[in-house]
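User: Structure with L-homoserine, tokens only please.
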Amino acid sequence: MKKFAVLGYGTVGSGVVELFYKNRSKIEEKAGTQMELGYILDLRDFPDSPYAEKFTKSMDTILADAEISVVAECMGGVEPAFSYLMQCLQRGISVATSNKELIAQKGAELLAVANAHNCNCFFEASVGGAIPIIRPLHRCLAANSITEIYGILNGTTNYILNKMLTDGMTFEDALAKAQKHGYAEREPSADVDGHDACRKICILASLAFGKHVYPASVYTKGIREITLDDAAAADALKGAVKLIAMVRQLDDGRILPAVMPMFVPYTNMISRVDGVFNCVEVCGDAIDRAYFCGRGAGKLPTASAVMGDIIEAIKHNQTVFSQNWVDTGTQDFIAGVDELNCGMFIRFAQDADTVKSSQLISELLAEQSHNDIPVTAVKNAALIPAALTKQERNAVLDKLNAQGFEVSHWMPVMEA
Ligand code: HSE
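Assistant:
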């Protein structure tokens, strides 16, 4: 018999408890042992809960129980989650966490302590909700050199964009609905301003490239400035505006992580991922590319990933070494967003003559030695699918402005 505890009885924690009792016999079959939920840690009272006798307000009670072999952390935030998990790992108790803020800030420390005590710190639920991405990345794709990861990693913003664009809902109403569904973070700016997606790409980048990438090192821009006109213009140019989290390895070995709204052509399946769904594209030297899609947030989808980790922790009583990275003490292996070579989706401040604007852009590209690039334009926007350097992009934008095609803003274009 294996006993586990759940820390935090919010959306995800209550989902883990619900899922355990719903599918208990199947879960025990997969774990190869009978299981028991020993404790639920929460500072609030739940007198009417069917599990009322499981609740405790004291982490010490859980740590004092020598039968506890796995602790699932669903509290969110760095503290006290970090201290609690460190105490577990130092006692050789494996942990499973859905807490992306914690792993993005403290992953290297937690993994080092897990290694030192021959147990595991699992975090499948921290990225992509229900989607299996952590374990496939370090296990199934272990033979690859990873070159790029792109994805929609925040369900709330994808849901908001979708509701605004397809249902004509206001930003505020769409956010309120996301909160009602249990998708949104406690502090909505974590979703809307891109911080949640940033934490998740930090975790994927750290895992893929072996060095801890801290959120402060990642260029992060959210969706506040995206308008319905942007979306309509993108649609006319055969693409969708999505909040994309990315990391790319550069030729010199450094990596370039970033989070920002991007134009995603309809030829890329990520453009079609709507609502709360997330999608991660992983590119490797052996696989070319692989896509991982599913519900990126929500109670049972996220609980599914936590429960999977609990089962995994019960089955593997030794450290899984492929799931590791280290803090190198520097972030000098990270390139800034200015080094991103990419195409441009350009919005004009006023409607423009489409023939003249695309002709002018083609001439400007030719000046930059980018010949025969298929520039397309609609009355208030244009699309340049070439991989331009920052200097080339600035030269095109400056000259367009000088010629009377006032550019109000631009966003990067994701490859097809
Ligand atoms: N707020 C997050 C999201 C929850 O919307 O994706 C899942 O991490």
